[in-house]
Amino acid sequence: MALLSTPTSLPILLGLLSILLFHPITTTSGIRLGFVPRPSPDLPVFREAPAFRNGEQCGSENADGIHVAMTLDANYIRGTMAAVFSLLQHSACPANLYFHFLSAHTTPKFFSSIKSTFPYLNFKTYAFDSDRVRGKISKSIRQALDRPMNYARIYLADILPNEMRRVIYLDSDLVVVDDIAKLWSVDMEDMVVAAPEYCRANFTEYFTNAFWCDQDLSKTFQGRNPCYFNTGVMVVDVDKWRKGGYTQKVEEWMALQKRKRLYHLGSLPPFLLLLAGNIKAVDHRWNQHGLGGDNFEGRCRSLHPGPISLLHWSGKGKPWLRLDSRKPCTVDHLWAPYDLYHSSRHFLEE
User: So which residues are the signal peptide here (predicted)?
Assistant: First the structure.
């Protein structure tokens, strides 16, 4: 305590404090000491994730970059953080991952939240104008599916930089348990979209009787073998998407949906109308979907048989909500290890 009583020691003490407060120390494990930027009060607070570094086998971060696009929404931000954490943790070359976040809000709250949680993350945020799609949305079977951000994936090619040729689009209610580079490297075979395809699903259920009874409309699938695919996990050749005018083609189906009730399921059916039967099918392990249950009750579901690279809580039930309610499904415990949510608001990391 004598140190504090000597006048000459005060500047030394202040100097030491300034080093700790304004120059965070990074250890080899990625734990940082110092102030974490205060996130927006209307967003959850998250623990800082450890730093993930490339191994010696990794190539150039620029030449071998993997681009991942996701949306940012206050209701799903906890899921987004878990998804990003899972991608980094299972990547052999995490520094090669580049994240592109689409948000309807241009305020810095999302930026500061991501930056404080992942200080080393390569990412950009892009403004998505909700008004661009708001008048085109038709009411679906679940209100959450009617949010404008659920349609942002349609406009990826318009929003992302023109020099970008390929991107992986991912929903926020999933975690990846494999190296995403394996999905990135899929041979697109001149297709616009690559995704797991499910040909055993009853494809007719995704459209109304009015659609199937209209001969002109039902001929849409003529010459194709249409199968269901989930738009929450897609590899998109955005260059071909731009050149083929696919955004406009999707919007044309949405406009027709406003006049005639062709489907009930939000942004998915326009993709099916345009691309089902004409995508590059990838292994089912890359979308173990439906873990959120159906769109009405969200009842628990078990895993499908087979290997798993990605777990997807599509459907009404979200793992963070079920865990918080203390009524989790068994599969929700597979999501929990990636949850960075900090229930108490501590801003000084130790």
Answer: 1-30
